[in-house]
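Tokens for chain A. Residues wanted.
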């Protein structure tokens, strides 16, 4: 994919951003992947990004994880700046971009304290920069921090859709329920997609999905749909060690085929309805972080 360029806000870009708001939402459909610790969210997100890009779709991966297991570190990229530099006007938003294999990656952790202390109007300026940045993007994937922890899950709460990752472990099932419960009770989200990881068959994936759905159905008014499964695949782990997506290192592996099938299916997902005053992902995330930060 071509590198993004010409990202400095211009009159043309400002007009385009305004037009996108008028027609009901910015470009770049935003999908957040979340789940419990150790469920493979980062691995799934970066490999799904590569699979979507391989289908000639333009992808931006927003990396909210700043640990040593982050997508930035997995792909052995060199990060020079953080969102704090953007908020402080030291660099533009697009200067956070890193070139990943086939797609663009942006490390973007949004501290609540920072969002709460942005100068008046700064969130709107950053939203305009984000609008310009995603003007030529088809998909925005978010490697979201676990929603069940105490931090403000701004990007996951603000994405158009959420994929909750589950595995056969009991801890994963508990974390999936906690994620769905928090997004539903604190932000009113009702629709969730679930992706089973490290399972061998569709029957196993369906059984996992049924367990989560039964538990959530007892206490929450939510809708859930299983979107697929990714098998346990040694070649996925080997690709990770090489710092490459599995589709690049082992294109014929089971995992690579699974990611390609999911990427193809995602193109048929219906879009969520937009309101005419809908702001973009970054603006919504900053607003969520500010509001939740003020409550803590």
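Reply:
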């Amino acid at each position: 994919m071509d590198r993004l360029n010409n990202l400095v806000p211009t009159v043309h870009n400002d007009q385009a951003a305004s037009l996108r708001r008028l027609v009901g939402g910015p470009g770049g459909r935003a999908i957040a992947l979340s789940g419990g610790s150790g469920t493979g969210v980062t691995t799934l997100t970066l490999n799904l990004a590569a699979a979507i890009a391989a289908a000639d779709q333009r992808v931006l991966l927003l990396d909210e994880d700043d640990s040593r297991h982050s997508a930035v570190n997995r792909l052995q990229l060199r990060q020079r700046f953080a969102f704090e530099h953007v908020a402080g006007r030291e660099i533009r938003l697009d200067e956070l971009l890193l070139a990943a294999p086939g797609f663009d990656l942006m490390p973007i952790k949004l501290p609540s304290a920072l969002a709460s202390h942005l100068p008046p109007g700064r969130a709107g300026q950053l939203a305009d920069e984000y609008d310009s940045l995603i003007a030529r993007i088809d998909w925005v994937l978010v490697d979201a921090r676990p929603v069940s922890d105490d931090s403000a899950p701004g990007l996951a709460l603000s994405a158009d859709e959420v994929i909750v990752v589950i595995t056969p472990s009991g801890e994963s099932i508990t974390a999936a329920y906690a994620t769905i419960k928090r997004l539903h009770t604190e932000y009113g989200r009702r629709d969730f997609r679930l992706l089973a990881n490290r399972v061998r068959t569709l029957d196993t994936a369906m059984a996992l999905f049924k367990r989560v759905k039964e538990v959530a159905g007892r206490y929450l008014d939510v809708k859930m749909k299983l979107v697929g499964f990714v098998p346990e695949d040694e070649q996925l782990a080997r690709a990770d060690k090489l710092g490459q997506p599995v589709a690049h290192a082992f294109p014929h592996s089971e995992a690579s085929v699974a990611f390609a099938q999911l990427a193809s299916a995602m193109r048929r997902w219906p879009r969520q309805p937009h309101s005419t005053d809908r702001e973009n992902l970054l603006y919504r995330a900053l607003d969520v972080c500010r509001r939740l930060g003020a409550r803590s």
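The two ends are 41 Å apart (CA to CA). Confidence is low (pLDDT under 50) at residues 1-26.
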